[in-house]
Amino acid sequence: MTNMTSGIGASRFTFSRVAIYATLILAAAVYLIPLVVMLLTSFKSPEDIRTGNLLSWPQVIDGIGWIKAWDTVGGYFWNSVKITVPAVLISTFIGAMNGYVLSMWRFRGSQLFFGLLLFGCFLPFQTVLLPASFTIGKLGLANTTTGLVLVHVVYGLAFTTLFFRNYYVSIPDALVKAARLDGAGFFTIFGRILLPMSVPIVMVCLIWQFTQIWNDFLFGVVFASGDAQPITVALNNLVNTSTGAKEYNVDMAAAMIAGLPTLLVYIFAGKYFLRGLTSGAVKG
Amino acid sequence: MATLELRNVNKSYGKGLPDTLKNIELKIDDGEFLILVGPSGCGKSTLMNCIAGLETISGGAILVDDADISGMSPKDRDIAMVFQSYALYPTMNVRDNIAFGLKIRKMSAAAIDEEVARVSKLLQIEHLLTRKPGQLSGGQQQRVAMGRALARRPKIYLFDEPLSNLDAKLRVEMRTEMKLMHQRLKTTTVYVTHDQIEAMTLGDKVAVMKDGIIQQFGTPKQIYNDPANLFVASFIGSPPMNFIPLRLQRNEGRLSALLDSGQARCELPLSMQDAGLEDRDVIVGIRAEQIVLAPSEPNGLPVIRAEVQVIEPTGPDTLVFVNLNGSKVCCRMAPDDAPQVGQSLNLQFDPAKVLLFDANTGERLGAMSSPQAHGRADNVAQFKGR
Amino acid sequence: MSSVAVFSKASPFDALQRWLPKLVLAPSMLIVLVGFYGYIFWTFLLSFTNSSFMPSYKWVGLQQYARLMDNDRWWVASKNLAVFGGMFIVISLVIGVFLAILLDQRIRKEGFIRTIYLYPMALSMIVTGTAWKWLLNPGLGLDKMLRDWGWEGFRFDWLLDQDRVVYCLVIAAVWQASGFVMAMFLAGLRGVDQSIIRAAQVDGASLPTIYLRIVLPSLRPVFFSAFMILAHIAIKSFDLVSAMTAGGPGYSSDLPAMFMYSFTFSRGQMGIGSASAIMMLGAILAILVPYLYSELRNKRHD
C-alpha cells in the first residue's frame, strides 16, 4: 500500500483537520471494539463476565476459556487446515493454468467459456448444493475432508481463473510470441517466462482462496457434519448449543481461534488481501 | 540469409468478417531490406505475424529460399523477431534473455557464451549483461531485443515497429545504426513501420499497405516519385503532397485546367493528352518542393499570383501555404526566399511534373511524360492489387 | 505451388502443442458445464418435483413454487432480505464513502487506519456473528455496559425482539463490509484525474462541491461494483444469520439462504428448498444482468 495521497484539502492545522482526525479515530475505535471485547471476554472467568461489562478489564487473566475452547474446537481447527491447504494449492494451480490459456492461447470458444466461468463468481451456491451433495455421496466422500477439498476446488475455480486471466491479459502477448520464436513450447513458456512474473498474483490468489475456504460455513455444514467438519461449523455449533450454562469466555476464545489464521494473514499480507478484494471481486 | 516470397497470401479471421490480408504478392532477394508501411489497422503487423508463423494464413504460400514454410511452427522457421514493446523476459537478466533461444535449442554452454559475447560486443551492451530489463533505458532495451534476435543467426529478421517507443532523437540515432548493422550483416529483413521516413530511409524495397492490400511495391524512389494512387501519394512524403481538385477541359486540342488563387487565375496546360479525360474531375498532385517562385523574366511556364496565408519555418526550409482552387497548398522554400504573411507571390511549377488522380477512385490517370514515370509498369502495376 | 517443397505436414510434437491449450482447459470446462450449469439445471428440475427427504422425479409442475408463495416463513425471509439487504447496502455505502473521503485528505498513518477499517473483512461471518451476538447480548452486552457507565435507563434487547432482530444482522454486516467499501472508494479516489480537480479549484469550486459534483459522479463504476458485491453478500448471507440468531426468535430473522438450507437439509423438503434456491438465483440474475449489460455496453464504447 503506497502512501500516495490525492487529497485535495490543505494540510494546515485547522478546525476541520481536527474534526477529520477525531472522526477517523472514533471510527477506528468502533471497528476495533468487537475484537477488543472478544479478547477481553476470552480471558475472563464466568464470574467476571457476570459482574463486569464488555470493556472492563479482566480481574484475573483466566486462560480456562482458551483451554476449553481448544478442547472443543481444536480438532476441527486441524480439519480446516486439512481442507484449506490442499484446496487452496490445487485451485490456485488450476486457476493459473486456465488463466494462462484464456489469455495467451485463446481459441474459438475460449472467450465463451470464460464468460460462463465468470458467472460462477456470482453463483448463489444454494442452487448447486443438492446435486453436489448427491455427487459427493455417490463418490463416497460425504462427511470427509476430501469431499470438502473437492467442492472448494470446483467452486473456487471461477475466482482463481479470473485472477490469473486478468493478470496475464495485462502482460503483452509479444512476450509469448518472442518465446515461441525462441523455440519454447506451451509448458516452457508458462514455467520459464510467465510463472516467474506471477508472484504478486499468486500471492493474491493464495490469500483470497485461503480466506474464502477457511471462512466457509455453507459447504462445511452441508457436506461434512461430525468428525470432518471445519472449525466454522464447530464454532457455530458451540455458540448455538442451548444445553448447559453459556460460557461466553469459551465462545469468544473459540471465535478467536477460528478467526486468528485469516486475521494473521491479513496483518502480514494485507497488501495482497486488499488487491484480491478489489481486483478480483470488483472487476467481475 | 535467404530470399522471401509471398504468393497470393490471404488471411481472414472467419466467415463474414472482412479479409485482413488480400492477395499479398511480393518477393525480396537475399539480403534485401523490405519495409511494410501503412496506417494502423492496414494489416502490416498481421502480415509479419504470418511470416513468423504466429498466425496461420488462410490461403497462399510463404516461401523462404523457395521452400514453403506456411505450415511450419514458428520455432522451425528460423526467423527472429524484434517487437515494438521489445518483449524482453522481465525476470531474466540481459544475458539470459539473449541466451534463452539458444538454450531451448540445446546449444552447448560454451557456444552460448561465445554467441552472447559476440552479440553484446556488436551492440555495445557488454556492461548490461547482468541487469534486468526493468533497469534498462528504452534505447538499451531496444539493443537487447536486437541482440536476442542476432544471437539466433536466423535466416530472416522481422522488426515490428522497433523504434516507435523511443523518443525522437534516439529514434533517428537507432535508425542510422540499424542501417549500418544491415549493411554489415546483410541479412534478409522485413521491417514494419507506420513512419514513412523510416520507410524511405531504411528500405531497399517498400510495400505500402492499406486495408489488407498492397497498394504499391517498389523502391523508395519509385514510391515517392511515382505513386500508384492517391493513398500512396498522400502517405509518403513530408510535408505531404499537395492535392488540388480540378476539372479538365480540352482547349484548342490540348488538355488543360484552370487554377484559381482567389486573386488571379491561370490556365494550366497538361502534358498528358489521353482522350476521354475532358470534362472530368481530377485531383492534381504536386510535391511542395516542385512549386517555386517564378523568375522575373517569363520562362514559358504558367505563373499564378497567390497570397501567402501561413508560413512555417522548419529550419532548413520554410513552408509557405497559399490557397489554390480552395485547397491549402504547401510550397517548400529556402528560408532566405521566404515571404511575409499577406504578401502575394508569383508561383510556378512544371505542368509536366504534376501527377493526375481520378477524383472518385483515387487511381493514377494516364502515363505521364515525366522522366520519373518510366519503367513504372514493370514493377508497380502488377502489385497494385486493386 | 507445384515447384515448392511442402513442409505443411505438422510433426506429432507440433500437433500436441496445438492441442495442449484445449487439453489443459478441458477439465475445467467439464467442471463448469457439469458442476455449475448442469447442477443448476438439476436443481431447477428438482423444483418441479415432489422430492422430499430423497430426490424423486415425479413431476408436479409449479406446485412447489405455489407452496413457497403460500409459505409465511418464505415471505418473512424475503421481507427480511429486502430490509436487511437495503439497509446493509445503503449504510455500508454511506459509511464507506464517507470514510474514504476523510482518509483521502492526506492523513498521517493512513495505512494503519485503513488496516483497522478493513480487518473485519478477513473474518468469517461465523466469527462476526459470534462476536456481535455477544456484544448485543441483552443483559450482559452493550446493554449492561452502558448502564454500568451511568446510562441507567438504557435498554438494548433487539436480539430478542421479533421486529428488530433483523437490524442486529444489519449492524454486524455493516461492521464487516463497510471497511471494504471504504477501500474500494479510496482506490477509486486515487484514480481520479488530479487535473480535473485542479481545474475545478481554479474555477473556484469549494471542497464539498468538488466532491459532490465532480469526484463522486466520476466514481459511478465503483458505486456499481460495490453495490453488486454488497447485494451478492446480502443474498448469500447464511452464516451470519446462522451464528447470530439461527433465524430466531422463531423464524423472525430468517433469510432466503437460511430458509433454503433448513427446508432442504433439516426438514426434508427438497422440492420447496430447490424452488427457493431457484428464486435466489433469479434475484441474483435480476441484479447481475443489468450490471453486466451496462458493463459490456461501456466496454464497447471505450
Keywords:
heterotrimer; A: 284 residues; mainly alpha; MetI-like fold; 13 helices; disordered N terminus; B: 386 residues; alpha+beta; Rossmann fold; OB fold (Dihydrolipoamide Acetyltransferase, E2P); 2 domains; 6-stranded mixed β-sheet; 5-stranded antiparallel β-sheet; 9 helices; 21 strands; elongated; disordered C terminus
Describe, in plain words, how this protein is organized in 3D.
The complex is a heterotrimer of chains A (284), B (386) and C (302). Chain A is built from 13 helices and no strands. With 284 residues, chain A is mostly helical. Chain A folds into two domains: 15-51; 65-282, MetI-like (MetI-like fold). In chain A, helix 1 crosses helix 12. Chain A is globular, with a radius of gyration of 23 Å. Residues 1-11 of chain A have low confidence and may be disordered. Chain B is α+β, with helices and mostly antiparallel strands and 386 residues long. Chain B folds into two domains: 4-234, Rossmann fold (3-Layer(aba) Sandwich); 235-383, Nucleic acid-binding proteins (OB fold (Dihydrolipoamide Acetyltransferase, E2P)), CATH 2.40.50.140. Chain B has nine helices and 21 strands. Chain B has a six-stranded mixed sheet, with helices on both faces. In chain B, strand 4 (59-64) and strand 5 (67-68) form a beta hairpin. In chain B, helix 2 (94-104) packs across helix 3. Residues 368-386 of chain B have low confidence and may be disordered. Chain C has two domains: 1-46; 65-301, MetI-like (MetI-like fold), CATH 1.10.3720.10. Chain C has 302 residues and is an all-alpha fold. The longest helix of chain C is centred in the first third of the chain and has 35 residues, at 12-46. Chain C contains 13 helices and one strand. Chain C starts with a strand and ends with a helix. Classes of the chains: A mainly alpha (284), B alpha+beta (386), C mainly alpha (302). The interface between B and C is small, with 11 and 11 residues. Strand 5 of chain B pairs parallel with strand 1 of chain C, so a sheet runs across the interface. Chain B: Keywords: ATP-binding, Nucleotide-binding, Transport. Chain B: Residues 366-386 are annotated as: Disordered. Chain B: One of its GO terms (molecular function) is ABC-type transporter activity.
